[in-house]
Design a protein that fits this description.
This protein is mainly alpha-helical. 62% of the residues lie in helices and 0% in strands. It has 2 helices and no strands. The protein is elongated and about 70 Å long.
């Protein structure tokens, strides 16, 4: 198979132009553990709040006043 001289350069230029057209969000890899631990804490907190609400709703007891807490 014959290839013209400089075809690789044209392909690389085309690939770089295509990738430059897309905007990519820069995200530091070092932040991933902090984001995952924060997401885990939020899941636990929201799960406990919904669990407490669901518990009182199923049993038919009044939900306690949360302003004291």
């Amino acid at each position: 198979m014959l290839m013209s001289v400089g075809s690789e350069v044209d392909e690389r230029k085309l690939a770089s132009e295509i990738s430059a057209g897309r905007s990519r969000m820069a995200f530091p890899c070092e932040a991933i553990p902090y984001l995952l631990s924060t997401a885990d804490a939020m899941i636990v907190l929201l799960g406990s709040l919904f669990g407490g609400f669901f518990y009182h709703w199923v049993l038919g007891t009044p939900i306690p006043d949360l302003t004291a807490y």
